[in-house]
Amino acid sequence: MQRKIGFMDFSLFKKIVDESKGRTELLYMANGVGEPLFHPNIIEMIEYANKSGIHTMLGTNGTLLTKDLTNRLFNSGLDIIELSIDAATSSTYNKIRGGKNYEQLLKNLNTFAEANRSIKSAKPFIILQFIMTKFNAQEAEQFYSKFKDLEFDLIAFINCHTWAGNMPNFSVNHKKPLGKFSNCRLLWSQVAILWNGDVTPCNYDFDGKSVIGNVNKNSIEEIWNCPQMIKIRDYHSSGNYTKVECCKYCCPIQPYDALTFLEGAAGSELNRILNWYFSYGDLKKRSGPMARLRTETKTIKEFIKLYCSRQTYN
To answer: Which residues touch 2 (CB under 8 Å, ≥6 apart)?
Structure first.
């Protein structure tokens, strides 16, 4: 990463949440470009979003999950948590995430699992994530066997990506560039906001190469409809996505290439399920099987479990 790093001011976070009320369903605090649990106000941020009616999702590598922080997360109103572990053995873990203590991580996971069993809360929905690369793919089955008894809600096996060409391709299933693909759905459904308020069209753009505005200076609505964003959408619609700096080397995981392995859902499948869940919030305007499934369930845990139980995967 080449850009300056730091922590988002809580006041800026509040501004983002306040402007997002009634406009967004899910706020994702990702660990792809930093560990969110390092933030001194992370619990307060989750609580603020929750009180504002916005669902929250957090990704973490689990190394900071002390007993106290675990309990605070369970009481914060957090809707979904992704625990990215990526290895079944200490040696493989050290190759992928050098410098981390695998044995301590296992203790943290057990602490988290114990809290989940004792609290018996409807949320957060807990995802144990395994990002498959050529360095760890041989441990996928072992990973499932090792952690299934923790009784988390889902074990997800996800093909790694190149972060829009910013990282080498270590995937076991090599993805082709976008080619004739034109419209990236992300341009019409989300933006990424960096710690300093810079807004970029895509969370893969971790170096902020395609910044379209800053929420310290403009509202999210103004940035969403700004000339730069419209131009990027037009490039995609006309098949000229390579003119966008953060898009031209993208090798995405397509939303419908879902795989499953030992009862774990692929990341693309999981994202599709989450999109369905949140987009079907206003059931009066919806119909069809997904809407019916939404009415049958009261929590996201129930929804995803029932959805997965009804699928037949290849």
So the answer is: 207
